[in-house]
């Protein structure tokens, strides 16, 4: 197979000790493999420099506090916010729940509306449903265009001043469709609604600048960005975070506690109750350094070339339906006539190709595509043309078996 990638090789697979030779790992949208630099940062954090943060008066704890806060600064420089706008959370799911419980609980009234899209991950649906049910608010859903993007013309036509909040995926975890987040933000703001962008699948594969987007909240998970599990980021505009009540109570998030009444620390500390995932933050710092050293423009171009080759090759196998727009970011969903995606996944696994099969936590999207499930290949910095070739050879085998 000829590939468009030859001009821009990105040969990083040797950085990833958990990827053995000949294994095509194509499930990065679920979670990415970890480079040695991240593994080393975690090992150093526990094996050499470990102590708690923010409370210890001894030097080791002071040093760890500096390292933890340096990670916060690094996240801020990575996505374009300021450090006091960065809340460390467990992952995107917790970040969305935090906003749904804290901001929404305070602002949402009966009769208000929330706007989501048809392609959202369950993490960006269910927290809003819970908040809406509590407030007596309703949810509206932006449809997709024919080529499976969030339809921003439809959004502009349907949004009203009753819509107080909008939450949209920057990149779809099923289709790879990229949202024009700046335009979506302008539409949300035109009626005074706040907007949260779910950047889980965007941050690992394109440069993100929250200031340029102009959104109000942005969330992502460390483990999809070559970092550890259990650490993620909620970025929120300072004035919004400052006005929000705590999400969880506990140690660290307080100013003063008496049995009569407690007062709270300023943001972001107010939202980080309990001992945080200290070493997770250090691992995330290393992961950001890792992707920044490669360069997100390069990563984006690399994955775009792999997606283009995959889409072309799969389309050549008659009976394979490929979903999503041609310029999908890093992710290709497909289905083969008469074959359950789980069978595709099992047969590909026998050829040492790891893909995801299922509803990808996006059941409303599956319903709108008219399928129960899809097979999904998703790429990362360690993939190359060899992985596309292995996938296509595996799909030829699926076709022979079911043909
Ligand atoms: N949103 C999107 C678009 C995702 O892809 C995912 C993870 N599949 C999530 C939210 C939830 O992320 P996490 O499970 O890491 O909290």
From TrEMBL:
Residues 25-391 form the Aminotransferase class V domain. InterPro entries: Aminotrans_V_dom, Aminotrans_V_PyrdxlP_BS, Cys_dSase_SufS, PyrdxlP-dep_Trfase, PyrdxlP-dep_Trfase_major, PyrdxlP-dep_Trfase_small. It catalyses: (sulfur carrier)-H + L-cysteine = (sulfur carrier)-SH + L-alanine. GO terms for molecular function: cysteine desulfurase activity; pyridoxal phosphate binding. Its cofactor is pyridoxal 5'-phosphate. One of its GO terms (biological process) is cysteine metabolic process. It is an enzyme of class 2 (transferase). The keyword Transferase applies. CDD domains: SufS_like. Its EC number is 2.8.1.7. Keywords: Pyridoxal phosphate, Transferase. Catalyzes the removal of elemental sulfur and selenium atoms from L-cysteine, L-cystine, L-selenocysteine, and L-selenocystine to produce L-alanine. Belongs to the class-V pyridoxal-phosphate-dependent aminotransferase family. Csd subfamily. This is Cysteine desulfurase. It comes from Sphingomonas palmae.
């Amino acid at each position: 197979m000829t590939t468009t990638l030859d001009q821009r090789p990105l040969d990083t697979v040797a950085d990833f000790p958990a990827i053995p030779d000949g294994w095509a790992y194509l499930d990065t949208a679920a979670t990415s493999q970890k480079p040695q630099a991240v593994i080393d940062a975690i090992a150093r954090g526990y094996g050499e420099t470990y102590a708690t943060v923010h409370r210890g008066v001894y030097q080791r704890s002071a040093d760890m506090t500096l390292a933890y806060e340096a990670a916060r600064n690094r996240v801020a420089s990575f996505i374009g916010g300021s450090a006091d706008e960065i809340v460390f959370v467990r992952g995107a799911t917790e970040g969305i729940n935090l906003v749904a419980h804290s901001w929404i609980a305070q602002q949402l009234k009966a009769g208000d509306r929330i706007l989501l899209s048809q392609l959202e991950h369950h993490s960006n649906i269910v927290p809003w449903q819970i908040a809406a049910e509590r407030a007596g608010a309703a949810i509206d859903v932006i449809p997709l265009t024919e080529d499976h993007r969030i339809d921003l013309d439809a959004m502009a036509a349907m949004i009203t001043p009753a819509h107080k909040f909008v939450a949209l995926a920057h990149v779809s975890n099923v289709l790879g469709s990229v949202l024009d987040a700046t335009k979506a933000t302008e539409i949300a703001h035109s009626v005074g609604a706040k907007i949260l962008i779910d950047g889980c699948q965007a941050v690992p594969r394109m440069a993100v600048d929250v200031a340029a987007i102009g959104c109000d909240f942005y969330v992502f998970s460390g483990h999809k960005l070559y970092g550890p599990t259990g650490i993620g980021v909620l970025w929120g505009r300072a004035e919004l975070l400052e006005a929000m009540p705590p999400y969880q109570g506990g140690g660290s998030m307080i100013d003063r506690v008496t049995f009569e009444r407690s007062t709270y620390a300023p943001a972001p500390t107010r939202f980080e109750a309990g001992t945080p995932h200290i070493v997770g933050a250090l691992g995330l710092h290393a992961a950001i350094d890792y992707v920044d050293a490669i360069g997100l423009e390069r990563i984006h171009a690399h994955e775009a070339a792999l997606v283009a080759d995959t889409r072309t090759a799969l389309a050549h196998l008659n009976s394979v339906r490929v979903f999503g727009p041609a310029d999908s970011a890093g992710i290709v969903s497909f289905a083969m006539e008469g074959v359950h995606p789980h069978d595709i996944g099992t047969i590909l696994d026998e050829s040492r190709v790891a893909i995801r099969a299922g509803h990808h936590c996006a059941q409303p999207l599956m319903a709108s595509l008219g399928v129960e499930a899809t097979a999904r290949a998703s790429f990362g910095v360690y993939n190359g043309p060899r992985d596309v070739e292995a996938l296509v050879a595996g799909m030829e085998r699926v076709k022979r078996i079911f043909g």
